[in-house]
Sequence to fold (360 residues):
Amino acid sequence: MKQIVAVVALATLAILLWQLAPIAMPSGLGVVAQHYAEHGVQDNRGANLVTSVVVNYRGFDTLGEVTVLFLSVSGAAFVLRRRTGLEVHEPRRASEIVRTGARLLFAPIVLFGTYIFVHGHLTPGGGFQGGAVVASGVLLLLLANKDHPLPHGFLSWTESLSGLGFVAAGLAGLWAGGSFLANRGILPLGTWNQLFSAGVIPVIYTFVGLKVGSELATLLDVMMHAADEEVHQ
Amino acid sequence: MMAGNELYVGTAIGLIVIGFVAVLTRRNLLKIVLGFSIADTGVNLLIVSLGWLPGRTAPIVDDPSMFSDRAALAVNAARVVDPVPQALVLTAIVIGVGVTALMLAYVIRLYAVGGTLDVRQFGRLKW
Fold:
């Protein structure tokens, strides 16, 4: 019975979505999107218009998004902080090749993640994607060796200071440009398609990348060690 | 009716339905979390494909002559797809990761407390 209700409800949902999708299909850019597409290049000198929207026009949303990510990660860490009481299956130790390979690959992966978030205003990518790539390097280390020591102090300081840096950049915009996170008068906008251009956008995206990377790395560490508190205590 | 993005919209709706099938019919908490994750991906794909416009390119300016004057900027605006849904989805992906992490943390705790992943065993809030 429940299965039938589920099938009927989902079929209705699918048909509704399929019928509604053409209504939502735009025939051109909307007023807001038109403004972003026309003024994004002049306002920010960034090649990537999505980054202009995320970091400048909707920068306050991005600050809220970073806060939501922080809250969910600290929620997960809080829930898993206490002894979970799970029996621990000691996994088979990874072979020498896997452990060495992971250590060897870690630096290029972090370098690639850094490249992605430093070039967020020029190419597809940005702070969130680059931070996720950095965290995937940490995941590789932890998969190869569960007890790989992570610099917890460094991670939490990076996380806190980059969050502070984001807010400080926003306040600098308020002071110099007249509105929170404004991209005017703080840093020169520079030349289009140069690494040091687009004013304060690459600075903010670097902060976001560092924050997301260290947050996700901490999360992976907490989840990896959720079960083995028992062993240490 | 639609302009060439039927494949993406259809795939997105398919992913949403697959995800909710898992949420509504599976008993295993991990599979329910997976279902939410799949539905989340479907919603993201749906939003991006609705912002797609036929024959247009990614919202990245790759030509310096594009901002020489206002007319060139208008030409550029007529060449790119809508950047707003892409920015929204960028936000939604990150929030999705955070929510999935929180759900998995609760699943780990529930397994530690109840010793099972069967959602039917956690009925104490039911009446």
Remarks:
- Chain B is about 65% helix and 0% strand.
